[in-house]
Design a protein that fits this description.
heterotrimer; A mainly alpha; B alpha+beta; C mainly alpha; B: alpha+beta; Rossmann fold; OB fold (Dihydrolipoamide Acetyltransferase, E2P); 2 domains; 10 helices; 20 strands; C: mainly alpha; MetI-like fold; two-stranded antiparallel sheet; 12 helices; 2 strands; globular
Chain lengths: ~260, ~350, ~280
Amino acid sequence: MNRMGIIGWLVLPLAAIYFIVPLVMTLAFSLWQGGSSYGFASYRVLMGRPQLPSSLLLSTELAGATALMLVVLLLPAMIFMNLYAPKLRPLFEFIAALPFVVPAIALVAGLTALFTGPEWLLGSPFYLVIPYFFLALPYAYRSLDVGLGALDLTTLTEAGQSLGATMGQIIRFVVLPNLRSALVGSLLLTLAVVIGEFTFANVLLFRTFAVFMNQIGQHEATEAAALVMVSFLITWGAMLGVLVVGRGCSPVGGGH
Amino acid sequence: MATVALRRISKSYSGRQVLASLDLDLTSGELVCLLGPSGCGKTTLLRIIAGFIRPDSGTVVVAGKDVTALPPAARQMGMVFQSYSLFPNMTALDNVRFGPRVAGVGKEQQVSRARELLALVGLTEHGEKFPHQLSGGQQQRVALARALAVQPQMLLLDEPLSALDAQVRAQLREEIRRIQRATGITTVLVTHDQEEALSMSDRVAVMNEGRLLQVATPAAIYREPADPFVARFIGAGAVLPGTIEKGAVRVAHVAMLARAASDHAEGCAVDLYIRPEHVRLESMNGHIPPGSVAAEVNETTFFGSLTRVKLTLQDMPDGHGLWADLPSEQADRFKPGSRVLASWDEAAPRVMPRN
Amino acid sequence: MRPLIAWLSIGAFVAVATAFLVAPTLMLAIQSIYGDDGLTLEYILSMGEYRYRVAFENSLLLSLGSATVGVVAGGLIAHAVLKPSAPRWLRSVVTSFSAVAANFAGVPLAFAFISTLGSLGLLTQWLKGLGFDIYAAGFSLYSISGLTLTYSYFQIPLMLIIITPAIEALRPSWREAAENLGASGGQYWRMIGLPVLMPSLLSGWILLFGSAFSAYATAYALTSGNIGLVTTEISNVLSGNVMASPQTGAALSVGMIVVMVGVLALSSVLARRAARWMPQR
């Protein structure tokens, strides 16, 4: 019996080849030591490079800062907008959709044109957190919006208030716990996106993980392949987290 | 229109037998309900008739032609599903003309046929609406019209009313029956609702655990259930375990009047079935005449014209009770806690061997 | 009762978005029409020059191509995997791999493909050893078709993730009702399946188009900016690799935004038509 139909039999093996071969080849390439000898040499050289931990640390710090900005700036604004100012929803939707229409590279161009100082901001790698926030915004907004939509905030608040709870208590004990999976999902997604982000960092000349990877790749092909495997594992870990934690938020990122 | 013959239909899923060598005949223009609890195999049987499932063995013969090997698309059977089966991207009219359209009928003919059928189900005004703009009852009417549009040899209805609310359900019940009579199409209706089955069908086929237990007119099914399961499943009533003793049924130590007891051998373990409408009540006035049993009113439930009185039989183990349906004006004097005498016609109770 | 803190936090979000998102965008628009001597259309018109025209053509071609490949392949894979008869393990493998692959883009993706299909890639060498020289046959990873092949690696899984809920929402009873009314499998897909999926397919397509059109890292790492794409041209201007004024960069950026807005508008018109039958929200 053809249990998956003709299309299944035709498409699935092709897709499997297309998706598996580059990974296998890259793995093999990363283990290649010239001639016919294979081993972990390129991984050893890679681990010996001081820029690897420093760039990875920087990228992780940036991811953390971006996640923090989402929690501090976006989350309360969305909760309060839903509670007190639903009329502002179109404005929020517009802002959340804008990063999709304005490509990252165009946003960099705009930021460079608009801001020439102060030096303490533009000279610090944490300047990147601002564009990263907008990079993550559409996805974080979408998943929090789904989470909030499923909550029926008005009824919850009325129920809470009728039981004598203050607004702060309602948010702390009712809203936030219910948003946890949507929030954790979008934070992990942010992590994956920011660690792999290249556009802003490259143009604004900061040495993040992706920039470091590109630099290596221009000269050391096998080391670059080893880095690809490392990066694949990081993405895999972050997505595993999303899949485990997140129901109701789709793991779709940006930063291509 | 067509006669239908199902012969020795069997079906198993991973070793579990869902249908066990089942035979059923439908005469032309008849409406037969497949009635049974969920999981009894009634839907599987319907889907075998429709062609969505191949039986492991047995044949489906429609109008003298063996259709067992035909795919659903070639069977010319109109089917109405439980719910949400209208194509959401098409208007009511487009849904109805879908069958003629894929059959290659000319567009004008498709539309005029679809309009006729929409009129038949009372939705002339709603042809241009999309399914989500129609109520549940209206959607099922469209589904019925769509099934009729292919001029089917048979109409198959798979719990068509179960997703609707009570009022719409009652209304649509009559309407389906009216249309089925008017068109004269041989029809199989699957339901787990006995009221639906009894009120709509020419004959009811009661199923349990993959077997047909009884196929008969609604009245016969109700009055003369041939099987303990049918007796319990159809209608309300008390079931009392007892033994045959001197032409009556002894329950605990009380002899209960039942003419049917004489059909069974002395000492046989049996169940006594008494319907609530057969039970009469009188106030207790000291002694217990023969043919009556003493009871206490447990609770009363008001159903409008009827009141159902729940009784506990005296001097009997827990769970031995009776129900009595009385006209409401007579029931007023039986308050919970009052002691009464219950009696019934000798001919009323059914007696069946205990299984 | 509307506490102050609510307004403060809404205000802060809107202010940050205005300053660092809306204002830079407006700045681009202004910059693109202001030369050293005041208002000018010089920079906008320079988009017609060969170099920039090619960049826009390449970007559009790449985005249209990889989005279409993504929609078709992603849709077919999702369809095959989500069939009730398909084994469950296959489904969870494909779902979780998609989540990873959709986010496995940019520099690492480019290097994975260079390691595989680059001029010195393992697969290239291996095929050469078998007597099949793909580069001699006209293939190049560093071309638009090579980029399309590479982009598909994140486009297909992206589509899979987007379309899965829509395919799961197709009711088996629609299929059965169609069969019962005499329709073939093809007729079912043409008249019911695809029209019902169309709004989701369109919104998936636009998301894929956008992600390819604005992609920069993958193209940059793969071609070192040598192939003319709008994103790489903008970065060349910004990093001073080419002799071009910042206004040209602004004009290129405005051009990208115009394309995105245009595609979004077109697709939302199409989506509205395709979703005529849906409940209006």
